Amino acid sequence: MNYSLLDGLTLIGSLGLFLYGMKLMSEALQKIAGDKMRSILSVMTSTRVTGVLTGVLITGIIQSSSATTVMIVSFVNAGLLSLTQSIGVIMGANIGTTVTAWIVSLLGFNVKISVIALPLIGIGFPFLFSKSSKMNSWGEFIIGFAILFMGLEFLKDSVPDIKSNPDILAFLSNYTDLGFGSTLIFLFIGVILTLIIQSSSATVALTLVMCNNGWIPFELGAAMVLGENIGTTITANLAALMANVSAKRAALAHSIFNIFGVIWMLVVFQYFLQGISYLMVQSGSASPFEDVNAIPVALSMFHTIFNLSNVVALIWFVPLIVKTVTWLAPQKKGFDEEYRLKFISTGILSTSELSILQARREIAVVAKRATRMLPFINEMLNDEIKTKQFSEIKERLAKYEDIIDRMEIEIANYLTKVSESGLSGTGAIRIKSMLRIVDEIESIADIFYNLGLNLDKKRTEKMEFSPIMIENVKRMLNLVDLALVEMNKNLDVEYTDVTINKAIEIESMINKYRDELKAEHLDSIKDKVYTYEEGIVYNTIISLCEKLGDHIINVNEAIVDCKA
User: Per-domain residue ranges for the chain?
Assistant: First the structure.
């Protein structure tokens, strides 16, 4: 066999170029789609059918079922999609991924797109220098499209020719005449290749090239395609490893759907292939069993019809799939996810733009946890609670403060990693604003902790606040509570829906009330209404409440900056 190490490396390099072109094109389209894609996913999943259509649309656009399924797992993890909604979208992603096979079979083998690849790069290259982030992304898409077909052309040329290397055919012939055993062997090869390459689209392209070059017949190429359908589920399962139980169930549902589809297809495999051959002949083409040149289109047809049939067969059983994965991945009893990151533990997504969504959801959770520290302060303000209960509340307050400190560091590190990737102009602005938001929330938690320390000092040193002083502090805390409610609302809604008029009004009320209490405080000290030491603690508590208002309004202002 005349096939050197250099030839092998050339083959791997060609596949790498194909994958890089697909990745560049996919990420560019995700940047272009941006918020629209998120809106599509959140709105068009009300029914199973619309969920499937959404999966087809998204995967057809971004040309990667793996990217779609990882995205879906992340959205389930973030609570944007329910498990039932996610299964419909994942079903649609299986159909959408067949678009790649059609592009390769219809254009890659019949049209010399590689001839215009360099001119396409020439068109796209100037876009990279545009000040518009959207134009940059279009440039990346055009270049990615060109590189994809350059990689495919190199792939076709680097796969050894059977005539020049008859040993390859002799080797494969040992495994092509084992009947159903051959089908299982090549199915397993498809699984392994997809696991290694981590892209079913690239593996399908490689399978098409192998068939087109005469390495393997149509039926074994179809068996590899079935294996690739199983192999592609691994990406989503890897993404869900560190996610919450809902995301694990979504990834598991993807595996069950694809594996069950392969099982029933194996039962009718030969009849199904004969049906594909019949359709090819009826459309005026040659049978893929007789003409090697007909195999790429026939495989694309097999890939599409199989996935369509699988969706039509299983879409009625979504509730049963939900019950099955819920049983297979139960929520652990006593397992508390309260004190860890929920939404960004799966790592950075396929694009920075989608990673920003995870960070945004996580920040909203951190804000709610900081808000939960307020009731602790109200309880500690009550002189009638027992010492043991007071100590327990103080410990919980300290625990929350420590948790939020750690979460701030993790989120900031995550956002920093995201910022090192390719970002649109809007994405870069949002990263900067999010870093400010999480820093302000950490400051809110610090102030709540300091309030607790002052109340602990008051209790330890047996200071007594008059009913009026207690009432003044409670009224100030109520205003802070109103500000926190408004802040959390703005963190939860879409950036375009954010308004801070009410937040500004509440902040103004906090400042005005602080000024009133300070003036009263000076008079009370002068009139010796309370001791100087009691006055210091009382005044510090009022000042800390006012600082809470400052940090809360800073968060709201940073959210507005995310609108850009």
Answer: 5-328, 352-561
